[in-house]
Amino acid sequence: MRKLITISIMCIFLLSIISVNAEDKKEGSILVKYKFDKPEVKKIVVNENIYDKVILEDVTNFGNPGEPLIPMKGAYILLPKNSEVKDIEVSHGKIISLGKGFDLEPVGDLITTSQNIRIKPSTSTKETYASSEMYPGALYSKVGTYYFRGYAILVLTLYPVQYIPSTGELLYYTDIIVNVETSQTDDNQFYRAGEKDRLEVLNKVDNPKVLETYDENKLIKMSQEGYDLLILTTSKLKSGFRPLKTAHENKGLKTEIKTLNDISSNPDSVTAEDIREFVRNEYTENGIEYLLIGGDKDIVPTKMLYVSGYDEDTWFYEDIMPVDQYFGYLDGPFNYDGDNRWGEPNDGDNGGDVDLFAEVYVGRACVDNVQDVNNFVQKTISYLNTNAGDEYLSKVILAGEFLGEYGTLNFGGDLLDALVDGSDRDGFTTVGIPSNKYDITKIYDRDWPGFDPNNSWETGWSMTDLLQLVNKNIHILHHDGHSNYVYNMKMSNDYISEFTNTKPFFAYSVGCMAGGFDYSGDDCFAEYMTVKTSSGAFAGIWNARYGFFWADRTDGDSSMYARQFYDAIFGEKITVLGKANQDSKEDNLHLLHRSMMRWTNYQLNIFGDPSIIFHISEPPEKPKIEGPSSGNAGETYTYTAVTTEPTGEQIYYKFNWGDNTESDWLGPFNSGEMVEESHTWNSRGTFKIKAKAKDINGEESEWSNPITISVSKSRSVAINHIMSQIFTELFQRFQSRLNV
After folding, report:
1. How many whole angstroms separate alpha carbon 97 and alpha carbon 171?
2. Does 16 fall in a domain?
């Protein structure tokens, strides 16, 4: 007994030492290694000039107008819990020359998608192309450190390819190694340790192993009830949103309607900063995930952020624009330097970048009155309650205009083609709308019979052509063409009433300014389309200011966000509107310093309910399973499985235990909810455990990646066997003596 007590005391002592060391560890480092294959170099023709184009798989090409176009890689590195960046050291593996004499394609000029804008021809920068120094020279550049619900994420841009312009030599690194030295910080007030948050982080970072440093002890104490969607409006409009609240709650999304009176007893004095603080409180107290603003800018204020950028190398643009997602970026300040320009790259904590990872996903219903509310609510509920098998959900329209004779890609259709079935054009790969599942109609000026670029307004497709197609009911309408505040898709606001579709659609346009809901002259096109009529769109995404494209490539700034939006839905299976729009921004975050990328990031507002789940017919994602890797025969072990369903429907799970047995279908469970199941192996051996999921319609996922358990003969079983033998022998001897 004394020996057992001594061993127990020693174990407690050792555990104490380990926990003290963990608590005292104020500094550490993270090592993340990125490997690169040999790049491919192709000859291309641009404006009758022959250039070399470097292609590196799954790596985006980078550059500013006039500079060599080179591959670059975004690095998204999760920092340990309660830590910050102290220092960054980046080294490389072997450097290999691909040869000399290459003439790399220069980055083309960005062009706005507004009307009556002419751009000068693209030219290379003579100083850069005459240089004998490596370009870009650096191994990396730092974009910033951002926070998602308490998880710290460092974003870098890596440069695996180098170019010496004067000799035309191309070189690449086989490896780039990032070593981040960290120091300790205080707890992040928005960390809540939920499984849903952990799953989202898994899809955002390159080193998910660091998640182990984030313990499961919640740092924020939410109310027991909590809710998911906050609708923020005025007391006058509140009753109009109640049917939407009911519709959401019937689908399992807990919803609350608050008014500006809940923020202040003087609602007319409420500022954007007051709203952000209110959203922070609702997040920490009730765990909200979505915010729907119910009111136009003059009813519920927005935040005007400053943004600037260089287009065509020397043309400087700057503006302030409405950015509703500001309310969902909860970390840090947005005006650190205290000037009148909110949202500058040095306006975040300690002069760093502002927070651009969202805790809460935001959309707006730009309603002015009760009739607007009724229009919006009825269309949103109509889409929410659409039967998953409705034929109209397979209908998609891509509408592309003639953009002008600027280069080799002069038509919106050239850029829209990259959205069908995905694309690997221009150095990066995205998943698109699958043509084998969707009936995609293309109305392109490029392909229109009799189109004449010298008379484009009279010979391309017309507003009437678009109306006739849409009024037969469609699911998605994506537009690429010229626009202004009150003109988009070849029609002005006055003609939006011509939409007579009985089933509302989702719209996305890269045209200029059609989403500028701060415009003083009239309600913008996006407002008319979503709230001023009972037909048209239930939701959409439009630009608040200029949209931008490149005339010789498909990775112009606006196109990058559009491609990543559909990649989120159809590739990453992120089918919630607010999350898909935000994912398109985060996937492009490593390009934030390029030309007008920050500008485009800020201006892409959602006109609609951000919690809407697209009706996309896909099975649940392959589950992730966890559990013991070793054990004893005859003992019971518990395993967990979790996955998500693209449309948020409930999920059933089945386990295969690797011993020719399976569980029954377990459930249903909510999407993202973890399930536990136990099993006992009665013999020793090695067994592979896997799980699969199915939705309520019976669509099954793939089996998960298996995990292995090595089962040994149980000590208790062995002891019982020995004891049994002893008792048997004693009994036989005792019986033998009695017989004597």
Report:
1. 4
2. no
Residue with tokens 């200011």: 545
Co-location of 533 and 644 in the same domain: no
pLDDT at residue number 720: 56
Is-contact 145 79, C-beta < 8 A?
Answer: yes
Indicate the SS3 state at residue 467: helix
Label residue 668 exposed, middle or buried (CB < 10 Å: 0-12, 13-18, 19+): middle
Q: Per residue in 386-440, pLDDT tens? A: 988 899 999 999 999 999 887 778 899 999 999 999 898 877 789 999 999 999 9
Q: What is the reported pLDDT for 315?
A: 72
Structure letter (DSSP) for residue 475: S
CA 458/CA 445 separation, integer angstroms:
11
Residue 382 placed within a domain: yes
Tokens of 448: 């229109």
Tell me the pLDDT tens digit for each residue of 600-628: 999 999 999 999 999 987 788 899 999 99
Count of structural domains within the chain: 3
Shared-domain flag, residues 567 and 678: no
Q: H or E element: which one contains 158?
A: strand 151-158
Q: How far is the C-alpha of 283 from the C-alpha of 278, rounded, in Å?
A: 9
CATH code for the domain in which residue 661 is found: 2.60.40.10
Alpha carbon distances (Å) from 708 to 104, 550, 637: 49, 50, 13
pTM greater than the 0.85 cutoff: no
Lookup: tokens for 495? 């003609």
